[in-house]
Design goal:
Tet-R_TetA/multi-R_MdtG-like; 76% helix; MFS; Growth Hormone, Chain: A; TCR/Tet family MFS transporter; 413 residues; mainly alpha
Length: 413
């Protein structure tokens, strides 16, 4: 429950600044909207790039020193950084604050490892579904609170986010137990696997999860279509402005919570993790296909419940991966995957925005505002094939690989 609350508060803290960060940047650049858009895009690119470096380090640290200190330091660092951004006197200092938040925000890596530690293998998909519900709930409530507070003062959401993170740190200091006992930790900090691409070596030592990791990467690459193009797409395709787009995004969050809380555990119990994964990915393919081809807004809305079932795939994938990895490697595996997800966040927005701009521009052979969603649908179709190919019993087993390092007991002097 504490991990659920930690993730929820972290997502809330980030959600409340979503409506105001671009406007604060706009103030710093003299009110020019095009320049503000450029800087906002640069902020997103840099955030994902820094996460690519920091997530594997946090995962390796948690394997060596335990999950609790890493999570608590992350909460404390986030709170201090939001204070820093609330007080930032210039665009440069705000940019520095965004870099710091990218480092400290990698706590989601350790939260996933914590869940793998404390959940029985057959319960992990349901537990990861609860974390997905925390994301959905945070992105429903966070932007709404941020919008209200931002109308009062553009700095106020940053103070609110700081209070949330610091209260979370204080709560965890007295409540959160350690999930990884000393005898299951690595004997030393594994810098080889903590480097940005060092996790590739760890993945090579666990070849049975290659296909699943590829599914995670492709699915997250596809998911970036929402933050990259949705607001612009909604305006170009249906004439939806900020308010209507906000309502639709809130509905996406509501559907995500319903699926993660109410359906994932039941679906995985009935179908098993492999078939639940394939079902979720197929629903994502169909939902994005409807989004990309819908000529009117009400048809787009019909695709939302279908697309929401895609959320089943993520927890099922995580559960399958954690079954193949020993306890003292969970943090590094999660860190390696988080690094790959961050890499997707670096590249995906460039792909989607470029395609969207071309297919609504004057030189396009066909006017197709939904091209980004069609690309995402095609990517998920590839993920379906990869998941089907690499999750059959011949590639997976219930026993983790024995190659990961275990703690050694040194003789006393």
């Amino acid at each position: 429950m504490f991990i659920f609350i930690t993730v929820l508060i972290d997502v809330l803290a980030f959600g409340v600044i979503i409506p105001v960060l671009p406007h604060l940047v706009q103030q710093f650049v003299g009110g020019d909207l095009s320049t503000a858009a450029y800087w906002t895009g640069l902020f997103s690119f840099t955030f994902a790039l820094v996460q690519f470096f920091s997530a594997p380090i946090q995962g390796a640290l948690s394997d060596r020193f335990g999950r609790r200190p890493v999570i608590l330091l992350s909460c404390l660092g986030l709170g201090a950084d939001f204070v820093f951004m609330a007080l930032a006197p210039s665009l440069a200092w705000l940019f520095v604050g965004r870099l710091i938040s990218a480092v400290t925000a990698a706590s989601f890596t350790t939260a996933n490892a914590y869940i793998a530690d404390v959940s029985a293998p057959e319960q992990r998909a349901k537990s990861f579904g609860m974390i997905g519900a925390a994301f959905g709930l945070g992105f429903i409530v966070g932007p709404l609170i941020g919008g209200v507070l931002g109308d009062i003062n553009h700095r106020l959401p940053f103070w609110f986010a700081a209070c949330l993170s610091l209260l979370n740190f204080c709560y965890g200091l007295f409540v959160l137990p350690e999930s990884l006992p000393p005898e299951k930790r690595c004997a030393r900090f594994d810098w080889k696997h903590a480097k940005p691409l060092g996790g590739v070596q760890l993945l090579r030592e666990n070849p049975r999860i290659w296909g699943l990791v590829a599914v995670v990467f492709i699915a997250n690459f596809a998911h970036y279509v929402y933050p990259s193009t949705f607001v612009l797409f909604a305006d170009a395709a249906y004439g939806w402005k900020e308010k209507q787009a906000g309502y639709v995004l809130a509905l996406v969050g509501v559907l995500s919570v319903i699926v993660n809380v109410g359906l994932i555990g039941r679906v995985v119990k009935v179908l098993g993790e492999r078939r639940a994964l394939l079902l979720g990915l197929c629903c994502g393919v169909a939902g994005f296909l409807v989004y990309g081809l819908a000529p009117v807004g009400w048809l787009f809305l019909i695709g939302m419940p279908i697309s929401a079932l895609w959320a089943i795939a993520g927890p099922a994938t995580q559960a399958l991966i954690t079954r193949q990895v020993p306890a003292n490697a969970q943090g590094r595996i999660q860190g390696a995957m988080s690094g790959l997800v961050s890499l997707a966040g670096v590249v995906a927005p460039l792909v989607y925005t470029a395609a969207f701009g071309f297919f609504i521009g004057p030189h396009t052979p066909v006017h197709l505002p939904g091209i980004a969603f069609l690309i995402a649908s095609a990517l998920l179709a590839v993920a379906v094939f990869v998941a089907w190919r690499f999750t059959d019993p011949a590639h997976l087993s219930a026993t983790p690989q024995p190659r990961a390092e275990t703690a050694k007991v040194e003789p006393t002097a």
